[in-house]
Amino acid sequence: MKIKVQYSTIIVKNLEESIKFYRDVLGFKEGYHVDTPDGGAITIMKSENGASVELIENTNFEEGLYSIGTDVNNLDETIRYLKEKGYETTGPVIPSTVGRMTFVLDPNGVRICLIEHTQEYKEKYM
Protein backbone atom coordinates (compact mmCIF):
# COMPACT_ATOMS: atom_id res chain seq x y z
CA MET A 1 0.00 0.00 0.00
CA LYS A 2 1.33 3.40 -0.95
CA ILE A 3 -0.16 6.74 0.16
CA LYS A 4 1.26 10.10 -0.88
CA VAL A 5 -0.01 13.55 0.14
CA GLN A 6 -0.81 15.46 -3.04
CA TYR A 7 -2.59 18.61 -1.88
CA SER A 8 -4.69 20.39 0.68
CA THR A 9 -8.18 21.30 -0.46
CA ILE A 10 -9.47 24.73 0.53
CA ILE A 11 -12.99 25.99 -0.14
CA VAL A 12 -12.67 29.67 -1.08
CA LYS A 13 -15.16 32.52 -1.40
CA ASN A 14 -13.45 34.09 -4.44
CA LEU A 15 -11.40 31.85 -6.70
CA GLU A 16 -9.67 34.62 -8.67
CA GLU A 17 -8.62 36.42 -5.49
CA SER A 18 -7.25 33.18 -4.05
CA ILE A 19 -5.38 32.32 -7.26
CA LYS A 20 -3.74 35.76 -7.21
CA PHE A 21 -2.65 35.26 -3.59
CA TYR A 22 -1.11 31.83 -4.14
CA ARG A 23 0.48 32.87 -7.46
CA ASP A 24 1.57 36.47 -6.85
CA VAL A 25 2.31 36.38 -3.12
CA LEU A 26 3.38 32.79 -2.40
CA GLY A 27 4.91 31.98 -5.80
CA PHE A 28 2.76 28.97 -6.74
CA LYS A 29 2.06 28.20 -10.40
CA GLU A 30 -1.38 27.46 -11.81
CA GLY A 31 -1.61 23.76 -12.59
CA TYR A 32 -5.00 23.21 -14.17
CA HIS A 33 -8.58 24.40 -13.88
CA VAL A 34 -11.93 22.61 -14.19
CA ASP A 35 -15.50 23.79 -13.89
CA THR A 36 -17.72 21.40 -11.96
CA PRO A 37 -21.20 20.29 -13.06
CA ASP A 38 -22.79 21.97 -10.01
CA GLY A 39 -21.53 25.44 -10.95
CA GLY A 40 -18.33 25.38 -8.94
CA ALA A 41 -14.74 25.71 -10.11
CA ILE A 42 -11.45 24.08 -9.13
CA THR A 43 -7.91 25.33 -9.69
CA ILE A 44 -4.80 23.44 -8.65
CA MET A 45 -1.91 25.66 -7.54
CA LYS A 46 1.47 23.88 -7.64
CA SER A 47 4.42 24.60 -5.38
CA GLU A 48 8.01 24.11 -6.47
CA ASN A 49 8.51 21.19 -4.09
CA GLY A 50 5.68 18.96 -5.26
CA ALA A 51 2.69 19.41 -2.96
CA SER A 52 -0.17 21.54 -4.23
CA VAL A 53 -3.15 23.50 -3.00
CA GLU A 54 -6.54 22.71 -4.52
CA LEU A 55 -8.75 25.79 -4.50
CA ILE A 56 -12.49 25.20 -4.85
CA GLU A 57 -15.11 27.91 -5.22
CA ASN A 58 -18.50 26.31 -4.58
CA THR A 59 -21.34 27.68 -2.49
CA ASN A 60 -22.41 24.12 -1.58
CA PHE A 61 -19.51 23.90 0.89
CA GLU A 62 -18.40 25.91 3.91
CA GLU A 63 -15.25 28.01 3.37
CA GLY A 64 -11.98 26.86 4.90
CA LEU A 65 -9.81 23.75 4.94
CA TYR A 66 -11.89 20.93 3.46
CA SER A 67 -9.51 17.97 3.33
CA ILE A 68 -6.02 16.67 2.74
CA GLY A 69 -5.86 14.92 -0.61
CA THR A 70 -3.75 11.81 -1.02
CA ASP A 71 -2.88 9.57 -3.93
CA VAL A 72 -3.20 5.84 -3.20
CA ASN A 73 -2.02 3.15 -5.59
CA ASN A 74 -4.91 0.78 -4.76
CA LEU A 75 -8.05 2.21 -3.16
CA ASP A 76 -9.66 -1.14 -2.35
CA GLU A 77 -6.49 -2.36 -0.61
CA THR A 78 -6.24 0.92 1.32
CA ILE A 79 -9.86 0.63 2.52
CA ARG A 80 -9.27 -2.97 3.66
CA TYR A 81 -6.14 -1.89 5.54
CA LEU A 82 -7.99 0.98 7.26
CA LYS A 83 -10.76 -1.41 8.36
CA GLU A 84 -8.13 -3.76 9.82
CA LYS A 85 -6.83 -0.80 11.85
CA GLY A 86 -10.34 0.11 13.07
CA TYR A 87 -11.16 2.98 10.68
CA GLU A 88 -14.15 3.18 8.36
CA THR A 89 -14.53 5.45 5.36
CA THR A 90 -17.16 8.17 5.67
CA GLY A 91 -19.04 7.08 2.57
CA PRO A 92 -18.93 4.96 -0.55
CA VAL A 93 -16.23 5.02 -3.20
CA ILE A 94 -17.31 7.60 -5.76
CA PRO A 95 -16.04 8.34 -9.26
CA SER A 96 -14.39 11.71 -9.92
CA THR A 97 -12.93 13.44 -12.94
CA VAL A 98 -9.46 12.18 -11.91
CA GLY A 99 -10.23 8.63 -10.74
CA ARG A 100 -12.19 7.29 -7.80
CA MET A 101 -12.17 8.35 -4.17
CA THR A 102 -13.51 8.15 -0.66
CA PHE A 103 -12.81 9.86 2.67
CA VAL A 104 -11.63 8.75 6.10
CA LEU A 105 -11.45 10.91 9.23
CA ASP A 106 -8.24 11.09 11.23
CA PRO A 107 -8.50 10.90 15.05
CA ASN A 108 -9.05 14.69 15.13
CA GLY A 109 -11.90 14.70 12.62
CA VAL A 110 -9.79 15.97 9.69
CA ARG A 111 -11.05 14.63 6.35
CA ILE A 112 -8.45 12.67 4.42
CA CYS A 113 -9.39 12.18 0.78
CA LEU A 114 -8.11 8.88 -0.57
CA ILE A 115 -7.86 9.05 -4.36
CA GLU A 116 -6.88 6.33 -6.80
CA HIS A 117 -5.96 8.51 -9.78
CA THR A 118 -6.37 7.28 -13.34
CA GLN A 119 -3.24 6.43 -15.29
CA GLU A 120 -4.07 9.27 -17.72
CA TYR A 121 -4.18 11.78 -14.86
CA LYS A 122 -0.88 10.50 -13.43
CA GLU A 123 0.86 10.78 -16.80
CA LYS A 124 -0.43 14.30 -17.38
CA TYR A 125 -0.23 15.92 -13.92
CA MET A 126 1.95 13.88 -11.56
How would you characterize the overall build of this protein?
The chain is of the alpha+beta class and 126 residues long. Helices cover 22% and strands 44% of the residues. The chain has 3 helices and 8 strands, in the order βαββββαβββα. The protein has an 8-stranded mixed β-sheet. The two termini are 18 Å apart. The relative contact order is 0.20. The mean pLDDT is 92.
Task: State the strand order across the main sheet.
Answer: 2-3-4-1-5-8-7-6
User: What order do the helices and strands follow?
Assistant: EHEEEEHEEEH
Mean pLDDT: 92
Secondary structure tally: strands: 8
Q: Please bin the fraction of helical residues.
A: 10-25%
* Cα Rg: 15 Å
- Counted by DSSP, the helix tally is 3
**Biggest β-sheet description:** 8 strands, mixed
Termini separation: 18 Å
Q: What class would the helix/strand composition place it in? A: alpha+beta
Query: Outline, from the CA principal axes?
Result: globular
Low-confidence runs: none
Share of β-strand residues: 35-45%
